[in-house]
Amino acid sequence: MKRFTLISTLLVSLFSLSMAAELKVAVINYEKAFDAYNKTVEFKAVIEGKQKTFQEELQGKQAEFKGYEEKIVNFQKQLQDPAVAESIKAQVQGELKDLVQKGKAEEQAFNQKVQRTRQSFQEEMNQQRQLILRDMNDVVEKFAKEQGYEIVLDASSSTVGRTPFVLYFDTKYDVTDEVIAILNK
After folding, report:
1. CATH code, domain carrying 57
2. Which pLDDT value is given to residue 14?
3. Residue 55's Cα: distance from chain center in Å?
4. 3-class secondary structure, 158
5. For residues 90 and 102, what is the distance between their CA atoms, to the nearest angstrom?
6. What sign results for the dihedral spanned by CA atoms 133, 170, 2, 148?
7. Predicted local confidence at residue 135, as pLDDT
């Protein structure tokens, strides 16, 4: 709430000052620019490829676990079959116990791998996002200085209450496409 009040006060003050001297203001849809930036598109493709590979590995492991389940069901059928000799039942029971332990251990190890992999993806995405945003900030700042803009507002931002930060602006102030063109040179 303090941030919203501070920003509102700042904007009112800035626009009040603009009455005395004309401010040059630009508005950018940062989210649109981020999504259209070549580095973002390339990184999303890399991450999607890694996620697809991991998903295939996950499906393969699930098929392997399903095979364990089928073996367990077969062992249980043998244990319940009165025609099977007691000596064979004892052997089957030992194999069943080993299979269940092996399956549980593999499932636990794989679940840990899934968790680590998802965390790694998240960390990689956060790091790359920060790098991309830093690049974008540098480009926007340079663009604003070169074009003589005194204020650049983000039209895609919202306040804590999810109200758009910029409620209205004339499209003549929108520099999103210009910035995207510079980013993708």
Report:
1. 3.30.910.20
2. 55
3. 16
4. strand
5. 18
6. positive
7. 95
What is the pLDDT at residue 2? 54
Q: How is residue 147 written in tokens?
A: 């074009």
Structural domain including 112 reads: 15-183
Q: Is 44 left (phi over 0), alpha (psi -120 to 50) or beta?
A: alpha
3-class DSSP state of 129: helix
What are the start-end ranges of the E strands in the chain?
25-28, 151-154
Residue 9 lies in a domain: no
Q: Counting every residue, how long is the chain? A: 185
Virtual torsion, Cα 73, 76, 77, 81, nearest 10 deg: 180
**Tokens for 154?**
């983000």
Measured at the CA of 159, the angle between CA 156 and CA 27, to 5 degrees, comes to 35
3-state helix, strand, coil in the chain (%, to 5): 75, 5, 15
Q: What is the pLDDT of residue 10?
A: 53
Q: Is residue 33 part of a domain?
A: yes
Residue 7 domain flag: no
Residue 33: count of CB within 10 angstroms of its CB: 24
Q: Which residues of the chain have pLDDT under 50?
A: 6, 20
Q: Does residue 173 lie in a domain region? A: yes
Task: Enumerate residues 6+ apart whose C-beta is below 8 A from 166.
Answer: 27, 153, 154, 155, 157
Our count of domains for the chain comes to 1
Q: Count H helices, E strands: the chain? A: 5, 2
